[in-house]
Design goal:
single chain, about 500 residues, alpha/beta, 6-stranded parallel β-sheet, 3-stranded mixed β-sheet, 20 helices, 15 strands, about 45% helix, globular
Length: about 500
């Protein structure tokens, strides 16, 4: 079978596939991207591809491969192109779209092609830098102060900006817009601070420091899209038969996508012209609203249902949504209990409801196998970050304890009950199967369960600030509401309808 390349573009059925024109290959490189991961290819690279097809951005991406694993041969063989399959529910209806993405011009290795990467700093068309080097990528690396070739992403970014400054003699217009997509709060601010600290440690002159601060815009950003990546071999083979070509880089994503970029500079907003191609790209002075919507309605919903769903016997999120009772429970949790706690001076009820509806569509996606057990990783810290602030708000409003949230917290306590410990690894048991409790606070929760009397165990757990970061027993009715549900779960099992009805 023919491999995807620009030579076969004219043979592809453009009516059913989004196919780039051959003119795209002559567009200048406007973007320097650190990372080749599926999130980048499924989100920002997708937006740039769509914009190019609509003549809205008219630029391609020079990709820097940061890791030493794997090569760049697949990108070379396929002229930088790959197929993106969008599959999932949109407004309750199943949709599928196929995009041949030609946004990537070339891929260079940071380890092997560093000189070529620095040479790109002289390209006046290059104006935007994006990254996804995982959460551990934006870190301080002491050795970069003296290393001839930097090893960390901030170190490499600084080296590139230094070369940019040198080539253009510190011209303001040579500054870059830098948009990290790592899943860190205030990622742009954190990256800027590390790069600035590194430049100061290297003794860079004041003129460069002013240029670094004033000419370059480090933007905080928030990304949200599930991109599982490669398909199963049999599934990919079947799709390749339909498309008529082989693609080593084919990936799949859900339809939902969000890239919220924070900037107060009009020039930056103008540069990010691809934002006009898709409602999923949002440019705003403050992106905290989007972070709050995601943190509470998506992440907190996951957190409040994962333990209960697992002990109930559901393996995947989709399986739980397909169950009439459990699906109804999640819906009530979202719309009856979390939405009112999300509404604020900055988020309207209509916005919260609309986001909640998208969340349920995503949960129901038949093409995403999202495991509940995976969601329970670091369960306690997720409760602390995602759920406790909502409990605090509920308490400040003098409202009654929400029953679905109480059930979710009872599910948390039940999931965290360790049945055995082997080599400091804690294991629970549900439905006749053992499961690993992957949580830094597993030992603390195991100690709570050693309390003979159940109500006292619940009180001790929620009183422990080391576990939840707050004394939850000070909230009227909280402990009793969770205890009531936990008692029923232990007495009759989670499959009984009274727990969620």
């Amino acid at each position: 079978m023919t491999t995807l390349s620009k030579q076969i573009l004219s043979q592809l059925p453009s009516g059913t596939i989004s196919v780039p024109s051959v003119e795209v290959f002559s567009l200048p490189e406007k973007v320097l991207q650190f990372g080749t991961g599926v999130l980048l290819r499924g989100l920002p690279d997708h937006f740039i591809d769509v914009a190019n097809k609509k003549n809205l951005f008219n630029g391609r991406i020079l990709v820097v491969k940061s890791t030493n694993t794997g090569g760049t041969d697949s990108f070379t063989r396929q002229d930088g192109m790959y197929t993106l399959l969008e599959r999932g529910l949109v407004n309750g209806k199943l949709e599928e779209h196929v995009f041949v993405n030609a946004s990537i011009s070339r891929v260079l290795s940071a380890a092997d092609d560093w000189d070529q990467i620095l040479t790109a700093a002289a390209n006046p068309s290059l104006q935007l830098i994006i990254s996804n080097t995982t959460e551990v990528g934006i870190v301080w690396e002491e050795s970069d102060i003296h290393a001839p070739v930097p090893v960390s992403f901030p170190g490499r970014l600084l080296a590139f900006l230094e070369e940019r400054f040198r080539v253009f003699n510190g011209a303001e217009e040579a500054g870059m817009v830098i948009v990290p997509t790592e899943l860190i709060v205030d990622n742009g601010t954190r990256l800027r601070d590390i790069v600035t600290r590194l430049a100061m440690s290297k003794g860079r002159p004041e003129r460069f420091m002013r240029w670094l601060t004033n000419a370059n815009d480090f933007c905080n950003s928030l990304v949200d899209r599930i991109v599982p990546g490669k398909l199963a071999v049999a599934e990919q083979t079947a799709i390749e038969q339909q498309l008529g070509y082989h693609d080593e880089l084919m990936i799949m994503s859900e339809p939902y996508c969000l890239w919220a970029i924070e900037t107060t500079r009009p020039a930056t907003a103008s540069l990010l012209s691809f934002a006009a191609c898709h409602e999923g790209v949002v440019i705003a002075n403050d992106i905290n609203k989007f972070r709050e919507l995601k943190l509470r309605l998506l992440n907190a919903t996951h957190t409040l249902t994962c333990g209960l769903a697992h002990v109930w016997g559901f393996t995947t999120v989709r399986a739980a949504m397909e169950d009439a009772l459990f699906g109804s429970f999640i819906s009530r949790l979202v719309f009856d209990e979390i939405v009112p706690l999300v509404v604020s001076d900055h988020i309207t009820k209509e916005e919260a409801i609309a986001f909640g509806e998208q969340v349920l569509d995503r949960f129901r996606n038949p093409h995403i196998e999202h495991l509940w057990l995976s969601i329970t990783a670091q369960y306690t810290s997720k409760i602390q970050m995602r759920v406790v602030p909502m409990l605090q708000k509920q308490n400040s409003q003098k409202g009654a304890m929400p029953q679905c949230i109480a059930a979710g917290l009872a599910g948390f306590l039940l999931f965290m009950r360790a049945q055995e410990v082997k080599n400091d690894v804690y294991w629970g048991k549900a439905n006749g199967q053992v499961y690993r409790i992957n949580d830094d606070k597993a030992s603390l929760m195991a100690k709570q369960w050693q309390t003979p009397e159940l109500l006292q165990m619940v009180q001790n757990s929620f009183h422990n600030v080391d576990i939840f970061g707050a004394d939850l027993t000070t909230y009227p009715g909280f402990t009793e509401a969770v205890y009531d549900v936990l008692s029923l779960l232990l007495a009759q099992g989670p499959e009984k309808q009274f727990v969620l009805s």
